[in-house]
Each structure stands twice: as structure tokens, then as C-alpha cells.
Design brief:
By secondary structure, the protein is α/β, with parallel strands linked by helices. The protein folds into two domains: 16-137 and 305-336, Isopropylmalate Dehydrogenase; 138-296, Isopropylmalate Dehydrogenase, CATH 3.40.718.10. It is built from 15 helices and eleven strands. It has helices spanning 3-12, 30-44, 56-65, 67-72, 88-93, 98-107, 120-131, 166-184, 205-215, 230-234, 244-270, 273-293, 319-334, 337-346, 349-362, and strands at residues 20-23, 50-54, 73-77, 113-116, 141-148, 151-156, 191-194, 223-227, 239-241, 301-304, 309-312. Strand 5 (141-148) and strand 6 form a beta hairpin.
Length: 366
């Protein structure tokens, strides 16, 4: 009996699936950070049921130290773990790792979603092989929330797919809409395609074709059109759709700009007596801005387009940040995120038709 079949058999004897399966062994902070994060999450989600998978000898004393986490967790031993340096191909061969076992729990219907702070490449590979993509979705994408002048913005893909065609971009728009509805609570989020200009003739063929399909789809009323890089932080649209290469560059550029701004503020307010006095005057406002931009609030990138909820926590986060990743996963599970994608894809015959035509066009000549 395979691990997935064993998981499904155990689920049949259980009254209801776990809300989440959590990999306790991922991240720089290891099980200590994960269990402390679950203690924070337990206050926010007291009704959650969590399958906690990892080294039992290390986890039992930690759960005893965090009774709130223990109250929502069921512990399962995993003999091995995927290291942060392990290649995805090696992780796929490791059948008894904590990361593999949480994926098996979702694939077998034992849990609705996964949260891990572990190795990103291994996590994506395992999710694609074990949990698999939703029908109608060719590739999963990585989505996350970031701040803007008008509120939180969903952006995808952030690096899972370096090269994309127009179909992938349309699928990302569908998945991003479901994500924004589930996590941000927006009834009709607006969608923008990231481009080098807002005019319709800008960009390459894949962008223009994706835009044409979206204008002729049930998402037409929510499709804003092309947007530029500055529109991300301006909050011009609720969802920013792009390929993984551009998305990852934009993400890292934003992180770099934030670090530079933080360093300049520190330099200005510590370089002179006048600067230190000025800091005392503006300190309350700076504290509010720091809380608003706190990266831990936005922790929890999601691999969307899979047959289950898969949330990747930043490996270097702390307990508060891990709890935020749990928040994202719980929102997606509670609001039946994947049902929204299935419904939307079912109402997009133009996407299906255009895909078929493209597939035919790509067949080699006889």
C-alpha cells in the first residue's frame, strides 16, 4: 500500500479531514519556530485541526511547552526531512520525509492544505507530483500578497514558471481572482497584465493574445488591461498577472527598494543631533509605517492551481510570520479556494476553444 493510499485509508476512519497538514521540519528556525507559530495561530483559529508531521522526539517537548499549539495538533512521526540545500530530484526520492508526508495527506484527502517553511524547489516538485494540478490548469503558479497605496495586492507568478505562454497568463488571472476573493475578501477584484506600457499595442504577442482572451471572457468586466511596474505599488489593480521571470525580478526589486529606504531613514535620523530630535517627533508615525510594511504580515506564498491548498512560508521567518502563513492557508481552505477556480474555468469556453486551436496549431506537420 502506497503512502497516499495509506493516508486515504486512515482518513476513511477519521470523522473529518484535518484543516491543514504542517511540515514541522522546514525553515531556518526549525520545529521550534513552527510550533511557536502554531501557538499564535491557535488563538486566531481555535477550531482548526492540524496534522503536525516531523521528528516526534523533538516535537513532543515543544508541544508540551506550547499547550495552545498542542490543543489543535495531532502529531505524526516522520523519519526524515528535506534539507534547505537538497535538490528537488533528491527530495522526490525521499519517500518518508515530513514534506512528502504532508503532501500525501492532502493527496489522500486527509487534510485540505499544506503549510511548510522548507525548501521551495522541493516543495513545488513534490506538490506537482503528489498533489497534481487542477483539471484545466497546465502549470501551478506562485502567488503572494504585497502592500500598495490602496491596500493589499495579489501578484502572480513570482518565480514558479520562468517562461510562459498566453494560456498560462490567462490561467494565472483565473487563479489570482479566486485567490483575491478567498484571502482579501474582494467580491470582484480587478486584474492587470504587467507590461512595458499601458497601450494595447505594447508588449509581445503572448501578452496581447492573453489580453484578447481576457477581454472576451467572463472576467472582462474585471480586466483593467495592461499595467506598468509603478502600478504595482500604486494599487491600480487588485491582481497583477505576469510570468515568473518578470514577477520574481519585480519582487526582489521591491524588497531591495524597501531595504534601501529603511537604510536611508536610519542614516538620516542617526547622523546628527537634529536628526535624532526629528526621529523622536516622527517616531509614532514611523512605527505605524513599520507595522504596515512588516514583511511578516505578508508571509505565505501560495502555489495555486493544485488539487489542494499549498502555502510556502518564508524559510527565515519567525513564529509571527509562520502564523501569517497559516492564516493564508486557513482563509483558502475556509473559502473553498479551488472550487472558485473550477467554477471560473468551467465558465470560460473561450479559453478552452482557444487552447484547442493553439494545440492543433502546434502539432507537427504530417
Amino acid at each position: 500500500m502506497s503512502e497516499v493510499e495509506r493516508s486515504a485509508a486512515e482518513t476513511a476512519q477519521s470523522p473529518e479531514p484535518f484543516s491543514l497538514a504542517v511540515d514541522a521540519m522546514g525553515g531556518d528556525g526549525g520545529p521550534e519556530m513552527v510550533v511557536a507559530g502554531l501557538a499564535v495561530a491557535a488563538d486566531r483559529h481555535p477550531g482548526a485541526r492540524v496534522l503536525l508531521v516531523g521528528d516526534e522526539k523533538r516535537l513532543r517537548p515543544l508541544l508540551a511547552r506550547h499547550p495552545k499549539a498542542a490543543a489543535i495538533c495531532t502529531l505524526r512521526h516522520a523519519p526524515s526531512a528535506v534539507s534547505m540545500e537538497m535538490k528537488p530530484t533528491a527530495a522526490l526520492r525521499l519517500k518518508d520525509s515530513s514534506m512528502r508526508m504532508v503532501m500525501n495527506a492532502v493527496a489522500g484527502g486527509e487534510a485540505a492544505g499544506v503549510v511548510s517553511a522548507g525548501n521551495s524547489g522541493a516543495m513545488l516538485a513534490l506538490a506537482k507530483i503528489v498533489i497534481k494540478t487542477l483539471p484545466g490548469i497546465s502549470r501551478p503558479a506562485m502567488a503572494a500578497i504585497s502592500p500598495s497605496m490602496k491596500g493589499d495586492v495579489v501578484m502572480l507568478d513570482l518565480g514558479a514558471n520562468v517562461a510562459c505562454d498566453w494560456r498560462n497568463l490567462v490561467e494565472f488571472a483565473v487563479m489570482g481572482e479566486a485567490f483575491a476573493k478567498a484571502v482579501l475578501g474582494l467580491p470582484a477584484p480587478t486584474i492587470g497584465l504587467l507590461n512595458v506600457g499601458a497601450e494595447e499595442l505594447k508588449g509581445d504577442e503572448k501578452l496581447r493574445q492573453a489580453a484578447d482572451v481576457l477581454r472576451d471572457s467572463p472576467l472582462a468586466g474585471q480586466f483593467h488591461g495592461f499595467i506598468e511596474g509603478h502600478d504595482i505599488t500604486a494599487g491600480t489593480t487588485d491582481i497583477v498577472v505576469t510570468d515568473g521571470f518578470t514577477g520574481n525580478v519585480a519582487l526582489k526589486t521591491g524588497e531591495g527598494a524597501m531595504k534601501m529606504a529603511s537604510g536611508l531613514f536610519r542614516q538620516v535620523f542617526t547622523s546628527s543631533l537634529a536628526g535624532r530630535l526629528a526621529y523622536l517627533l516622527v517616531r509614532p508615525a514611523l512605527e505605524r509605517m513599520k507595522d504596515w510594511l512588516d514583511p511578516r504580515r505578508y508571509n505565505g506564498a501560495v502555489f495555486v492551481g493544485l488539487n489542494g491548498v499549498v502555502v510556502k512560508s518564508h524559510g527565515g521567518t519567525d513564529a509571527e510570520g509562520f502564523a501569517s502563513a497559516v492564516d493564508v492557508a486557513m482563509d483558502m481552505v475556509t473559502h473553498h479556494f479551488n472550487d472558485g477556480i473550477r467554477t471560473r474555468l468551467g465558465n470560460m469556453p473561450s479559453l478552452t476553444t482557444n487552447r484547442s486551436l493553439t494545440d492543433v496549431e502546434r502539432q507537427p506537420a504530417a
